[in-house]
Structure formats: structure tokens, C-alpha cells
Amino acid sequence: MQQIDRIHFDEFHTPNYFPQNKVIISGIGSYVTDQDGKEYVDFAAGIAVNCLGHCHPELIKTLKRQSEKLWHTSNIFINEPVLELARKLTESTFADKVFFANSGAEANEAALKLARRYAFNRDSQKNEIIAFHKGFHGRTFFTVSVGGKPEYSDGFGPKPSGIKHLPFNDISAFEQTINDQTCAVILEPIQGEGGVIPATSEFLATIRSLCNKHNALLIFDEVQTGIGRTGTLYAYMLSGVVPDILTTAKGLGGGFPIGAMLTTNAIASTLTIGTHASTFGGNPLAASVANTVLSIVNNTTFLNSVREQSNKFFSGLHQINKRLNIFNDIRGLGLLIGAELSDDISETAQDLISHCFANQLLITAAGPRTLRFCPPLNIDDKAMEQGFERLEHTLSNIKNIRSL
Ligand code: PLP
User: Cα of 90 to ligand 1 centre, how many Å?
Assistant: First the structure.
């Protein structure tokens, strides 16, 4: 086989990524295998995407069946899988209508444009968006400008205006900022990239009630928290605070690219013909896979098992921490879990991704100091235990290096 590795990646790919120095060739369940035949436990699931693990037999069957039937129609014509998916998503949530896109960023781009246009149709001065420090909503220019990490949007200016960033979970900053010019508030119910930080229930309730008072739309970015990741189909279902617009992607396609924006009839009517579109949005291949993902995940037994595996995951991390005292905090919900490194650990979360990778474990990071664990939702006990052994081995080596 032709030699394939990081050197080849660097030769041909734009230099905006820094991947591990091995090529992943295949995957099955909660494991992947590299070009040398080495098997890794997957605690990353493609950053909360492969919710049913790798090569789930039902997803393969669906994709094969659809690939022999119809690949693409564009939005000029209707296809069957997208109708079924829109029905499933609206029947399972607060929403009446769905717009389909191909990624989380595109779903958020649609949500933000919709919120601006909805307000503009009533008052052309009502255009302010409130977002939060460390929030992450994607890498299109609008979404990255709304996101709360200026380092991701600096140097690409001029930036879109009318966006205010506030500290997350700071009720009084929010109360002092929202006003009648606010058209939308966007947040993740649990900040993912920002460090796995759950919104407090008081914060969510305050935002909901002040959005109502000032006629601002509440957008929940559930790109990462959705599709069972937190133990309910969407995180808002646990909080009891219902948004006006919800965005979903990542797990929705179980590894096949798809995104969607969900909203109510009254708000959706703003998107009149031609106001927004996507060539690939609602693609029959993606929609058929998402239909199968939803029928497996949106089921009480499955969601209960996510909560059970979550308890085991938290307990495994706490046990490791008891022995090694390496985390300041372990937080999150369901199988979206962050473990913040103690201050005396000099390695960054990025360093630990590499160390874990060398020990055949895939993990991801959420900011410079937090390890993020988002394994497949159907991870079994054996894979979890194997992953914990490798994690503990990696972390204890760090401790040993540190205490020399
Ligand atoms: N929103 C959230 C909360 C995310 O975590 C991400 C990706 O990590 C996005 C949006 C962007 O999604 P995508 O990379 O599919 O555009």
C-alpha cells in the first residue's frame, strides 16, 4: 500500500489542522483501526458525531438501500426521505417546520438569518444578537462572529455588526443588556467547545422570560447536545425551557453530514420563497441515514441506556481521579463530559490527546485545559473499561513525569 501519513497530509492539505500522525482506516462500534492495524478505543466519536459508533449495521443497510434508489434531487424537487425526516423531527420536538442544511454552522447561519429577518419585518432597527463568551456556533463568517472566541474571527474583518457577547451564566449581565433592539439570543444549553459548561437552570429561565418580554427569539444551538447526547433527545427537554429556534447536526447523521434548523409555524413563515436555500440541504442519502438514526435513538430504552452509561462514565472518571488527583472538575451531562486538568499539570489538553492516541485511545479537548469525552452513545461496558485503562495508564505516566 502507498505510504500514507501526516507528511502526506501536510503536503496536500491546507495547514489549518494538526491531526495525529496515523491514518484511520476503518471502524466498528466504539473502535477504530489505523494503517498499521492498531486498534483504538473511541471516546471522541468524531467530536460527538458517530452517536451509534462506527459502521452500525442498520445505518449501512439504510445507506446501501438509498444509494441504489436516489442520491440527489436539489430543493427544486421533493424526495421521500426528507419528508419522513421533517415529520419525525417535528413530531418529536416543539417545532412545526424544518430547514435542512449540511452542517452545524449552516444550520446556525440559517437560524441567525431567520431571526434577523423576522425582526426586520416588524422593526428595521431591531437587529442586535446576544451571544456568550466561549460559545461556539460554527466557522462560517456570521457564525464565527457570533461565537464567543474572537481569535476565530479576528483578521477576517470587517465583521458583521450588531453582536454583543456576554459572560455565560451571568444573569445580571444579561438583564442589563437585553432590550427592545435585541432580535435574538443564541446559546448552547451546554457549552461544548467552550469547556463543557452547562447553563444553569436560573440562567435559562431568565433568558426565556426576558426574550418573551422584549420579543427576542431564543435560539438553542443543540448541534453538540442533540440526538440523545445528554440522555434526552434534545437537552432543552430536560431543562424545560423551550427555544423558538433549535439547530441540530453532528449526531443527526451518525457520521453522514446533515444539519437542520427547527422552528415554529409563526417564525418559519418569515422564510418566504428565495430568502434562504441550500443545494444539498435535504439530500436523500443524508436524510435516509438520519431517519434511521432517529428511529434508534429516539426511544426510551435507548435514552435510558445513555443515562446508565453516563453514570458509569462519570464514576470511572471519578475513580481515576481518586487515584491520580489529576482533574480539578468533572462535569457535563449524559455522554458529553468534560474533565478539567488540575492547575499543576503542565500538559495541555491537546498534549493529552496525543498521549492518549499513542496509547490507543481517541479523546478530544474542549479548550486548553479540559479533556472532552463524547463516546458513541451505544458504547458498551467492555469498550468503556478498556478506554479507562488506557486513559489511566496515560495519565499516570504524566503524573510520573511530573513527580521526577
Ligand atoms: N455548534 C456547536 C455547538 C458545535 O459544537 C459545532 C461544532 O463543533 C458547530 C456548531 C459547528 O458545526 P459544524 O462543524 O458541523 O459546522
Answer: 21
The pLDDT-based confidence of 363 (bands split at 50, 70, 90) is: very high
The CA dihedral of 267, 272, 277, 280, to the nearest 10 degrees, is: 80
- Whole-structure pTM value: 0.97
- Grid cell listed for 284: 436523500
Q: How many CB atoms sit inside 10 A of residue 235's CB?
A: 26
Q: Atom of ligand 1 at shortest distance to CA of 259?
A: 15
Task: Find the 205 Cα to ligand 1 centroid distance in Å.
Answer: 24
Question: Beta-strand (E) ranges in 17-136?
Answer: 24-28, 31-34, 39-42, 97-101, 128-132
Type of residue numbered 367 = G
Closest by CA position to 135, among listed 174, 201, 212, 189 = 189
Q: Bridge-partner residues for 327, per DSSP?
A: 341
Per the CB < 8 A criterion, the answer to whether 86 and 243 are in contact is no
pLDDT of residue 1: 45
Asked which of 106-110, 238-242, 379-383 is least confident by mean pLDDT, the reply is 238-242
* CA nearest ligand 1 atom 10, residue: 137
The domains found in the chain, sorted by start residue, are 6-55+300-403 (3.90.1150.10), 58-297 (3.40.640.10)
Torsion of CA 235, 241, 242, 248, to 10 degrees: -20
Comparing 10-14, 157-161, 278-282, the range with the smallest average pLDDT is 10-14
Average pLDDT over the chain, rounded to an integer: 96
Q: Determine the distance separating the centroid of ligand 1 and the alpha carbon of 112, expressed in angstroms.
A: 14
Residue 117: all three cell numbers together: 429577518
- Which of 136, 186, 187 to probe ligand 1 with, by most ligand atoms within 8 A of CB? 136
What residue's CA is closest to ligand 1, atom 13? 104
- Which of 100, 224, 261 to probe ligand 1 with, by most ligand atoms within 8 A of CB? 224
Q: What kind and span of H or E run contains 354?
A: helix 349-358
Q: Are 310 and 231 in contact (CB under 8 A)?
A: yes
Cα 294 to middle of ligand 1, angstroms: 19
Sheet containing 364-365, strands listed edge to edge, beginning at the edge strand earlier in sequence: 327-333, 336-341, 370-373, 364-365
CA 295 to chain centre: 20
| Side-chain half-sphere CA neighbours of 292 within 13 A | 23
How far apart (Å, rounded) are the C-alpha atoms in residues 157 and 130? 19
